[in-house]
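[Discussion] Sanity-checking designs against the backbone

I'm trying to build intuition for which residues belong where. Below is a structure token string of 149 positions. I'd appreciate it if someone posts a full sequence so I can compare it with mine line by line.
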């Protein structure tokens, strides 16, 4: 499982010209599910998202996690995070989980984040979304449950 975690002052998902989901300060998280991902991958990524200390403390240092900062999460499914562009010019997506399995892990990740006390909004699964965000910093963190990076 891979994630791009972006600290934002606001973010929203628009589907068919209507706002589907939105948050104020918090984290915009793009989540990609791999074919071999399971419950351990879900827990690893959710725990990392919950406990990343990427919000400023009183001294301006990144020492506060999202819960202590009072932020929300906007979780957006993004199978393209599993793209393999090492050969040729067209990315291959063979490493991405099939839609039904990916959806189950995506929803499980949202549930774990909620169980960890976070407010979580979801993108529209398998929809053509426009994602708007105001990056704060910018702070963008890459996560990989297989610890490849």
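Best answer:
Here's mine. Compare freely.
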């Amino acid at each position: 499982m891979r994630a791009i975690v972006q600290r934002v002052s606001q973010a929203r998902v628009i589907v068919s010209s209507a706002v589907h989901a939105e948050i104020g300060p918090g984290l915009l998280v793009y989540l990609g599910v791999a074919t071999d991902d399971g419950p351990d991958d879900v827990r690893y990524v959710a725990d990392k998202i919950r406990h990343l200390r990427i919000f400023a403390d009183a001294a301006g240092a990144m020492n506060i996690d999202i819960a202590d900062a009072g932020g929300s999460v906007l979780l957006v499914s993004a199978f393209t995070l599993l793209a393999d562009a090492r050969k040729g010019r067209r990315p291959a997506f063979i490493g991405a989980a099939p839609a039904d399995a990916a959806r189950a892990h995506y929803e499980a990740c949202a549930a774990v984040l909620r169980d960890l006390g976070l407010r979580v909004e979801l993108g529209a699964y398998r929809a053509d979304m426009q994602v708007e965000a105001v990056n704060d910093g910018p702070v963008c963190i890459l996560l990989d449950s297989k610890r490849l990076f």
